[in-house]
């Protein structure tokens, strides 16, 4: 996400004008009313927003509730009581930070404007109903309160637009990167994954004991790739929607019919299987059509490890958060760090350090599935986004990676070999809309792993 630019002098000038034009009596009334009524205002805002199904998708979460109300109360108090001209820049910085968070969690601007309207209406009514000042002072205080809220929303919106534009460009760059992969190899890899599921299905039908549930296509390596990786490559292609419909039809309609006929066997089971295989053939055709549209283009890789660049994190994590918000399964972030990496560089040289990072990158890629993503996060740190795993499964994957790294020595120039270990922090998405919070949880878990002796995996909150 983009860093804040310089403060707009026009906004700062208007903010100072509002302060200078407000009488001491109106200032005192506005500050006192906002401070006393902050819990009521926050409740009105939250209840009004939660009445909208669209807003509930962003706000209906325990952590958001716990943080939003106190934060909203503090925001209202500070906005209505910062009368010192030297506090204007600080207030503008606060509003810009809020706008940045709104962009990061992809909160729609119209919802922010709606919240502002609810706040203005409630605050204005409280001020006009006050009995501690004259009508003129009450009206002046109401006008000032509305002006300050308008300025705050204007700053938030400007920052939101800047950050949203940057995120959009990053999304486009990520799609460009995704489409620059070796498409011929990727096409054959997914065809092979689809064939693997097809062969496994036939084996299960013919040899599995009664009562064994058939493996869904959507949970296969191919299905995970279609759901989590293909949208970045093919964007809004109609064939992709058809492919998802095909998978859904197999899992929800055809496999249950096969399941029911397994014990009976005979022609009916063969008919059901032919229907499944017909859908698989359609999926294979759609995959071919999708890949045939793309051309090879090299761009956007980390030069040393050939992994995803960190700049694509907002695009990938934002997409997973949105998928989860719409009722999809959860996902986890693994933060991986090479233990004593500085000592490796100091003792063996930077070439050895590079070999360690390249070796770790290859281990990470080998341990994850098609629907997962591996990033070079910076220095000796890597970030893994692993989809549709529980906390226990994510921790088990982290432990598998840790053991794989520790078990294999790394060849260095001159014939010598080096053993390296890693520490891993694991955090599972809990529904919170801000992916940055999930990264910070994984990072804190990684710090704990380091503090507890390194060469270990720690689950956030565990």
Automatic annotation (TrEMBL):
Indicate the segments forming the GGDEF domain, all copies.
Answer: 329-462
InterPro entries in alphabetical order: Diguanylate_Cyclase (IPR050469), DosC_2nd (IPR048442), GGDEF_dom (IPR000160), Globin-like_sf (IPR009050), Globin-sensor_dom (IPR044398), Globin/Proto (IPR012292), Nucleotide_cyclase (IPR029787), Rev_trsase/Diguanyl_cyclase (IPR043128)
Could you state one GO biological process linked to this protein?
negative regulation of bacterial-type flagellum-dependent cell motility
Q: What is its EC number?
A: 2.7.7.65
Q: Which domain of life is it from?
A: Bacteria
Molecular function, one GO term: heme binding
* EC supergroup of this enzyme: transferase
**Reaction(s) the record says it catalyses:** 2 GTP = 3',3'-c-di-GMP + 2 diphosphate
Q: Which Pfam families match?
A: DosC_2nd, GGDEF, Protoglobin
Q: Which GO terms describe its cellular component?
A: plasma membrane
The protein's name: Diguanylate cyclase DosC
- State the organism's lineage: Bacteria, Pseudomonadati, Pseudomonadota, Betaproteobacteria, Burkholderiales
